[in-house]
Amino acid sequence: MNEKVSLTPANLTLRHPELGTGPIPTDSYWQPEFYQRELDAIFRRSWLCVGRVEQAAKPGDFFQKELLTFNMSVLVARGKDRQLRAFYNVCQHRGNNVELRKSGHCVGFTCPFHGWTYGLDGKLVGVPDQRAFFDLDKSKLGLKQLALDVWEGFVFVNLEPEPHQTLAEFLGQQGRDLVGYPFERGTAVFEYEGTINCNWKCMVDSFCETYHVPVLHRHSVKDTLAGPDNPHGRLIDIRLKGPHRTQSVWGNMAYQPNPVQGLAFRHAPGPSVTSGAVDEGTVLPKGLNETRAPNWSIDVTVFFPNWIIVMGSGMYFTHQMWPLAANKVVWQMRGYLRPATNAAQRFGQENSMVELRDAVLEDCNTLERIQASLDQGLLKEFIYHDHELALRHQYHVVQQWVRDYEQGKAGKALKPRAKKN
Amino acid sequence: MATRRKQAASQLPKGFSALERWLDDWVLPDSTARLDKRMRSSLEELRAFYDGMLPHAEAALAYLAQRQLGELDPAEERLLKLMLSLAEVGPAIEWYGTGNYPDAFDPKRFPLIVQLPDTAPQGAHA
């Protein structure tokens, strides 16, 4: 190593002796049986992000979110009392979805099958020809509600009837450390969605190490996130916080943009994603670029299990992974840009979006080839670089959650549930 | 011939008549259509568009920076849409030089499901 700047030395992993340094078995990245255990131990017991409060800002606003892993539609609605509630989108009569629109505004929900109607609070208010039913107790037939809570404007739900942790407990220090990031300013939204033939954890891993950047992304972001001072794309830092983790990514401050890209940087409605520049009036939270490194570009925070926020100073985007099988995942990438006011800013937005898409698509063939190798039993262990610590951490967290849940079921006490809400 | 030229000249704001030749191919309805056009174009077509637009891009953006979304007239909308196509073609030339990534994952497998509007106002900062 002959890096000129003081990069983090090869000691990130050694800060966490409990994670070891040895190879990681690959079984849990392809076995269908382990995947089923993950669904019960992790996905049915974690807080899952379903959207933002702005999507249902006013009383009567609602939006739907498909929890694709469970083939389940969740309806988030703001009641007349301004409360946000989440319901399974299931009519209590025969099970049809009561709302088919992705989002909208209404006074209540009417099932398009037989016309049963529900209030924004989920209560069953109307049953056509009710007298022909037998002992119908409408008070017991409201839409089934899910636990819902909000963090920094993001709406989360939990499939446990009695969540074993509150959202604040679940997000823990990682959640607290990002409070104050200007999430609410990214109101210009775009979203991509696709199905990738790989394990959901491999998809998460794809965004959690930059060792691959100078090689796989040699045509695109190599010179932005690596450079002469950091040829191997080393990270600034990784911070593990409970089941979650954040990495601070190095940025090449001497990077000279290409012509169109340079015009887009100048006309973007906020600082370009990897510039590290902070726009006026923005105070970044302590948990972002926590070491306050000058050559910082972005932070990548993984909220366990399936939600990643990539935060620059002027825009952010999220990745969400919805596993469909041990070797198949739906990947949703949602960008949150500062709104454009003038038409030149709209050009800046478009180039940010296009370059982000091009760069992330470079990862996908590799992901599917990795999965093929795993499915064929041709790779028994992953060997992790020091700066692939986030991948090692994810493996251990997944194993821990599965073990804790299964031992709890077998009779050992789970951690006692803390105070209610 | 003369009439056709006159018609075309009013298709873009004053000073940008050199970009008329791209109107037929590169004024497209939305981001998805622009990606599709990029994928269907040969490297020569992409390079010709990029090289033809770039010398005028600075001036086009200076003009567009004075115009608010939601208040564009049709000629200004067309100028913006040409620039949005340049935003899409930029990395094809500047990053890849081949029109597409060398190890290309089919972008049709990762479509936009929520698009930014091209010309409509986006609202103020929250």
Number of helices of chain B: 5
Overall pLDDT confidence of chain B: 90
Structural class of chain B: mainly alpha
Net shape of chain B: globular
In total, the number of strands of chain B is 1
What Rg of chain B is obtained from the alpha carbons, in whole angstroms? Answer: 16 Å
Instruction: List low-confidence stretches of chain A.
Output: 1-6
Number of domains of chain A: 2
Largest sheet of chain B: none
Major sheet description of chain A = 7 strands, antiparallel
Outline type of chain A:
globular
Mean residue pLDDT of chain A: 92
Number of helices of chain A: 9
* Element pattern of chain B in H and E: HHHHHE
| SSE succession of chain A | EHEEEEEEEEEEHEHHHEEHEEEEHHEH
Helix content of chain B: 40-55%
Q: What is the SS-derived class of chain A? A: alpha+beta
Structural notes for this entry:
The complex is a heterodimer of chains A (421) and B (126). In chain A, a hairpin with a 2-residue loop joins strand 10 (145-151) and strand 11. Chain A contains nine helices and 19 strands. In chain A, the strands form four sheets. A seven-stranded antiparallel sheet of chain A has the order 2-11-10-5-4-3-6. In chain A, strands 12-18-17-16-15-14-13 form a seven-stranded antiparallel sheet. Chain A has helices at 32-43, 167-177, 200-206, 213-216, 222-225, 259-267, 343-361, 364-375, 389-409; strands at 24-25, 48-52, 61-67, 72-78, 84-88, 103-105, 108-110, 117-119, 124-126, 145-151, 154-158, 188-196, 237-241, 244-250, 296-303, 307-311, 316-325, 328-337, 381-382. Chain A has 421 residues and is of the alpha+beta class. Chain A has two domains: 13-27 and 181-404, Naphthalene 1,2-dioxygenase Alpha Subunit, Chain A, domain 1; 48-162, Rieske [2Fe-2S] iron-sulphur domain (Rieske Iron-sulfur Protein, 3-layer Sandwich). Chain B has 126 residues and is mainly alpha-helical. Chain B has a domain at 22-100. Chain B has helices at 2-9, 23-26, 31-40, 43-64, 74-96, and one strand at residues 112-114. In chain B, helix 3 crosses helix 5 (74-96) and helix 4 crosses helix 5. The longest helix of chain B has 23 residues, at 74-96. The model of chain B is unreliable at 1-6 (pLDDT under 50). Chains A and B meet through strand 12, helix 6, strand 18, helix 7 and helix 8 of A and helix 4, helix 5 and strand 1 of B. Strand 12 (188-196) of chain A pairs antiparallel with strand 1 of chain B.
